[in-house]
Amino acid sequence: MNEHMTPHPVPALDAGLFDPTSAENSWTLPSDWYYRPDVYQREHAAIFYKSWWYQCHASDVPEAGDYFCGEIADQGVFIIRDSDGTLRAFYNVCSHRAHPLLQGGGNTKLIVCPYHQWCYQSDGCFRGARGRESLKDWIPDNANLKPVRVEAFGGFLFVNLDPDAIPLCEQTPKFLRDMYACCPSLDDLVRVDRREFDVAANWKTLVDNNHECYHCDANHKSLMELVDYDNKATWSNDDITFTHAVGRNQLVNTAYPVDQDSIEQDSMFGFIWPVHIPLFYPGTPSMVLFQILPTGPETSRVRHDYFLLDRQPSDQERSFMDWFTGTLAVEDISICENVQKALHSRGYRQGKFVVDRDHVEFSEHHVHFFQSLVHRALMG
Known about the structure:
The protein is 23% helix and 27% strand. It is α+β, with helices and mostly antiparallel strands. The chain is globular and about 70 Å long. The chain folds into two domains: 53-160, Rieske Iron-sulfur Protein; 172-379, Alpha-Beta Complex (Naphthalene 1,2-dioxygenase Alpha Subunit, Chain A, domain 1). The two termini are 33 Å apart.
């Protein structure tokens, strides 16, 4: 064999002193898991293509023919409401020559590929194309769009590329109950805004940061004025999710104004594996679905979807959204980008978790919870 054709061996994946069974005894995942391209590629098959990913809300596709395009890592998908009202999802690719079919969101009676005008019905069935007679033996088994699993979870639409995936509602019934307990008006919320920005950090660096508040006193002054973490947070978790409830602190604070008469919910912060962080803050019924989208071994896109009862935010609600994206998120971006650079240091490979389950306001056992899920997926 020509030496240029010899495949390069895949580097071994070494977890070092990471212990998936005990946060108290474990070291963190090795630093190179956060920047090696081969690790990022492993994550596609082991994590990204086997997990549920939020795309949009049911209120984004209320009528027959409404569609919404999204992605799972490098895979384009779209959700569409069929003529009979059924929600369906497909890979966003034409069966003919691989051109994307739809962009953004909208409404269509027929799905028409812009490249060669191949047409599909909203149920994914091939409808027609010029020259189809020459493909009459190929079309019956190959021309229909390739389906993707879709599920409504409290009104939020998730998709999964794994046809054998366990339904999200079956995996996380407690989490859904916790969401309704915090926000009884959850079914009435509508998506009013989507804000996105790119971050120079691996997706796991961002998730790690959002799973502890050990850093909050020093780095999130306005958040600490708003909510009371001081030994008053309560945590619970199941196999792929966790929630923690936090009491409110000061109504007069530097985060956003909170009117006592408008408070219908307190704070609850959650996690749905692998990248979803639903957040509820004090005030009117509302939710932020904070999503971390992997874009490369050391890059991510952060997405904030805001949900309110009314599509026109009040002044208080707009102040809340501006604070969350413009202050709180910016503070974390700086931290995560600095950590990502330092993960390359020859002076660091693995650290240790601070674990104090009696003081969950600074304990890092839920960082270990997340890293254990990564370890399980990649190591088996």
